[in-house]
Design a protein that fits this description.
heterodimer; A: alpha+beta; Beta-Lactamase; 6 domains; five-stranded antiparallel sheet; 18 helices; 17 strands; rod-shaped; disordered C terminus; B: alpha+beta; Immunoglobulin-like; three-stranded antiparallel sheet; 5 helices; 9 strands
């Protein structure tokens, strides 16, 4: 800021100094016509300063000009405006200057010429001629006088030539008389003041002229006035000697011109001299004036042009800055702050612009902030949705998937995340679960029933799956349908748990209620036997048979009730680490030595790690399964049973898979879904609790069980047991593990 | 010349504004050199010979100078403008490793003037105030060209044993010209009449 101000002050100072210097120079320059001594001294400097000034201005202008042209060609914003302003300013300033200049030059030239047009020259010439004529008359008079003297001298034969010469001089107006002999030798002289300048030599040319001239023997000349003397006339004549072949003598006389005539002639001479000098200098004067004017014009013009550049730039720069600022704002840069040029209208505009950008910037920051807030909210929601065990799918109105969370994919058996944007209809084509789901959904949506809630049963390879489904329509723009959100829960496990709990309760009560009267019945029957069997009654046999039947049936009923209550009972689990393969072998050993012998194959995974579980329950589980299989194959000749273990590296925990497969008749198709429910059995005999207990045991270990019919006949029951003994997978958890479910299939 | 023209053409081709600038420059040149003269006698000042003689402890200059006025100068003279012709004489002391020092210098000025009434040319020795008149310019210039025994310097003013160079030149002084003419002579070459330095060692 300080530097900028200093620069501006320096600039103004330079401008003022330059202008003052230039004006001084111009003033001095105008002295050219006045012939001053000052000017003579300063002239080269004045010219130099002018030329330097012109050169500097020219350089500045050329620099600016090329700059402008470059900007113009590159379409720099504001260049066109600047160029137009430049042209306008230059035309406005330069054209009047040129007009004034042209008129001034013509005026000066014609004015100067007109001064000399007056007949002064002729008058002066005439005056000069008059003066010359006047003096000429005197000259001729003095010449005649001298000729007479020469004749007189020649005629007299006086030996005292000097004395005679002095007499002659005194008798006339001659200032000096001299007689020259051959070789310009002074023979005699007589002067008014003898100390005066040595005569003769000064007028050599006169004598020379006389001697050269053949025709004339006299000549006269006028000597211009010197410091202390006026005009003088020098005349010379040949002295004709009476003696032939005598040496030629010349008589030279010096005469003064009449003082009045001399004075006037001098004045005329001065005037003529001055006028002819002035007349001669006319052209030079015109030239000087023209040059002065031209220099003034040139400098003024260049200064005007530079001024035009300067003012155009001053006007255009804020506009350029405004344009650049506007472009920056258009690009989204709101940080632009323009410098305030001045307190004028453009300054006001710039101020408004700055105000606007500030407001825009603030508004954008606010918008950005709220966008970030929304984004973070959305992310939180996404995380919640992802962690949710409930499946959430949002669909476009044309049933394309917009979003889907993990749980939705797990429940429907499709990885929906990878199919975002695809139509649910296309996806469902090859996926039975999804297809059933879609059929129900479309049955509502096709009826324009956008808000519905229904329990859906999906049937897949693994078994039944019950979904609780709710759909809501999303409102889009302009009251249009924006899509749907379908929320669904896999409530299969929940239903199962409810059912299991109900059965447990039933079993407990039933056992209690049934067991209570059984003991009195049995005791009563035994008492009847003891009392009446020894009496030889005719009905002894009947009694024996009946009581035996009662006791036997009661016993059987007790067993049944015990088994039932065992199913409902939930004793503490005793977990320890053991070798599962070893346990299976021990159990299998028990069934190998029976009649008829069982074809039991063991396919045990040697890499199976030790399992954390309750070995007693696992043993019971195995017994139940084997017994169940044996019962199923009871009337079969070829009984075959296969038990296999596999180590599975699961996603959430390592599991062991136990498969028990027989070659019996398999499960009836209609009960395969409920095979693990109590009293569901396809056998004529049996409590119907075997598999229910097995399932209960498995679930106590946090495992899973599934049953299905093998392709080549027979039933296959597979159990997944986690290797680490953490029990109790919640149903929700199970829903989140689609891979395990698939392994069942 | 060709290069200059080629450069100008190239400049014009590149930038349409160049002709304007060139035109402006040309205008400046035109203003700066008005009426660059029809064929005229440029005139000539020359020192033909010069010598110095010592007489009774004073050095006297004898020189033969040739003066021929340029047409402009003659015209000015005949129009009544007095011309000042100067003879400069300098005594230089030779110095080793340095420029020669000017020990003494003498400026002899003559004023040449045309007297219209008597139609004679006057030569005024400005230093002495002596005036001579001549019937024609030739005689006047001839008179100026013969420098006889012009006293220069007292021998005592020069250091004995030092070697001196004398140099001489003559020129037409424009300093006393009337203003407008002086401005003109600033640009015009035929007004700057000046002989080369005529230099010779003292004592030869």
């Amino acid at each position: 800021m300080a530097i900028g101000r200093l620069k501006r002050v320096a600039y103004i100072a330079a401008l003022i100094f330059g202008t003052l210097l230039w004006l001084t120079v111009l003033l001095l320059f105008s002295q050219v016509a006045q012939n001053s001594e000052e000017f003579a001294r300063l002239q080269p400097w004045i010219l130099l300063i002018n030329i330097v000034g012109i050169a500097v201005l020219l350089l500045l202008i050329i620099g600016n000009f090329f700059h402008l042209i470059r900007d113009y060609r590159r379409h720099v914003p504001g260049a066109r405006l600047k160029a137009r302003m430049m042209i306008m300013l230059v035309v406005l300033t330069v054209s009047p200057l040129l007009i004034v200049y042209t008129f001034a030059v013509q005026f000066i030239n014609r004015g100067i010429d007109s001064w000399f047009d007056v007949d002064v020259a002729q008058g002066l010439d005439n005056a000069l001629e008059l003066s010359q004529t006047a003096i000429d008359l005197q000259m001729i008079e003095h010449l005649r006088e001298l000729e007479a003297m020469a004749q007189q001298l020649a005629a007299s034969g006086r030996a005292d030539i000097v004395g005679e010469l002095g007499d002659l001089r005194r008798s006339t107006e001659a200032l000096e008389l001299t007689i020259y002999g051959a070789n310009n030798q002074i023979l005699a002289t007589s002067s008014m003041n003898p100390e005066a300048a040595v005569p003769g030599s000064a007028r050599d040319d006169l004598i020379f002229q006389l001697r050269q001239g053949d025709a004339q023997d006299c000549c006269v000349t006028l000597e211009p006035p010197q410091s202390d003397r006026g005009y003088e006339i020098f005349a010379a004549v040949n002295m004709i000697s009476s003696v032939p072949a005598a040496e030629v003598r010349v008589l030279q006389g010096r005469f003064g011109v009449d003082p009045r005539i001399s004075e006037l002639a001098n004045l005329v001479q001065d005037s003529v001299g001055q006028y002819s000098e002035l007349s001669y200098l006319r052209n030079a004067l015109k030239y000087s004036f023209t040059l002065t004017l031209s220099l003034v014009l040139l400098i003024t013009m260049l200064a005007a042009v530079y001024g035009a550049f300067f003012s155009a730039r001053r006007l255009v720069v804020p506009i350029q800055q405004l344009m650049a600022g506007t472009r920056a704002v258009a690009r989204g840069d709101f940080e632009t702050v323009l410098p305030l040029p001045a307190r004028d209208e453009i300054g006001f505009l710039v101020n408004s612009f700055n105000d606007m950008t500030q407001r825009l910037s603030r508004a954008r920051e606010d918008a950005h902030q709220s966008q970030q807030d929304v984004e973070s909210e959305r992310k939180k929601l996404e995380i919640i949705l992802a962690r949710l065990s409930t499946g959430v799918v949002s669909l476009e109105p044309d049933l394309r998937i917009r979003t889907a969370n993990q749980a939705a994919g797990a429940i429907l058996g499709v990885d929906l995340d990878t199919h975002l944007g695809e139509s649910l209809v296309d996806l469902a084509a090859s996926r039975p679960l999804l297809s059933q789901f879609l059929t129900v959904a479309r049955s509502h949506l096709d009826r324009s029933d956008h808000e519905w809630r229904e329990q859906i049963v999906l049937r897949g390879d693994v078994g039944r799956r019950v979904l609780m489904c709710a759909c809501t329509a999303l409102s889009g723009d302009d009251e249009d349908l924006g899509g749907y959100v379908i929320v669904f829960d896999d409530i299969t496990a929940l239903l199962q748990a409810q059912r299991d709990a109900a059965w447990g309760e039933v079993a407990r009560r039933l056992a209690h209620e049934i067991k209570n009267p059984l003991t009195p019945i049995q005791l009563s029957a035994e008492r009847l036997r003891r009392r009446y069997l020894h009496d030889d009654l005719e009905d002894t046999e009947l009694l024996d048979r009946s009581t035996h039947t009662i006791i036997q049936q009661v016993e059987a009923m007790k067993d049944m009730v015990n088994a039932f209550s065992e199913y409902a009972r939930a004793p503490d689990i005793d977990i320890s680490r053991f070798d599962l393969n070893e346990l299976i072998r021990e159990v299998a050993e028990l069934y190998l030595h029976r009649e008829p012998p069982l074809a039991l194959t063991l396919d045990l995974d040697p890499g199976l790690p030790a399992v954390e579980a309750d070995p007693g329950r696992i043993r019971q589980l195995l017994h139940n399964l084997i017994r169940n299989a044996l019962e199923a194959m009871e009337h079969q000749r070829d009984e075959r049973l296969a038990i296999a273990t596999r180590y599975r590296d699961g996603r959430q925990a390592d599991v062991v898979e136990i498969t028990v497969a027989d070659n019996g008749p398999g499960f009836a198709a209609e009960i395969v879904d409920q095979i693990f429910d109590p009293y569901v059995t396809s056998k004529r005999k049996g409590t119907g609790l075997g598999l229910a207990i097995v399932k209960k045991l498995v679930e106590e270990h946090g495992g899973q069980i599934s049953a299905q019919n093998a392709e080549r006949g027979g039933a296959v029951i597979s159990i997944l047991l986690p290797i680490s003994g953490e029990a109790g997978d919640s149903p929700a958890h199970t829903a989140g593990r689609p891979d395990k479910r698939r392994q069942h299939a | 010349m060709y290069v200059a023209v080629a450069t100008l053409v190239e400049l014009c081709r590149r930038s349409p504004s160049a002709p304007v600038i060139i035109l402006m420059l040309c205008a400046l040149c035109l203003v700066a050199s008005p009426a660059r003269a029809q064929e005229e006698d440029p005139g000539r000042f020359e020192v033909r010979s010069a010598s110095v003689e010592l007489d009774e402890g004073i050095y006297y200059l004898n020189a033969w100078l040739e003066y021929r006025l340029s047409s402009g100068a003659r015209e000015a003279l005949e129009s009544g403008v007095p011309l000042t012709i100067e003879i400069e004489v300098e005594f230089l002391r030779s110095r080793r490793f340095w420029l020669d020092a000017a020990e003494a210098s003498l400026l002899q000025a003559y004023e040449l003037q045309y007297h219209a009434l008597s139609e004679r040319y006057l030569v005024l020795n400005s230093n002495v105030g002596e005036q001579n008149s001549f019937a024609n310019l030739f005689s006047a210039l001839n008179f100026l060209g013969r420098v006889n025994a012009l006293p220069l310097i007292d021998e005592a003013l020069l250091e004995a044993g030092e070697s001196y160079q004398i140099r001489l030149r003559t020129s037409l002084s424009t300093e006393d010209f009337p203003g407008p003419l002086r401005l003109l002579t600033f640009w015009r070459r035929d007004w700057s009449l000046r002989s080369e330095w005529y230099e010779w060692p003292l004592g030869d």
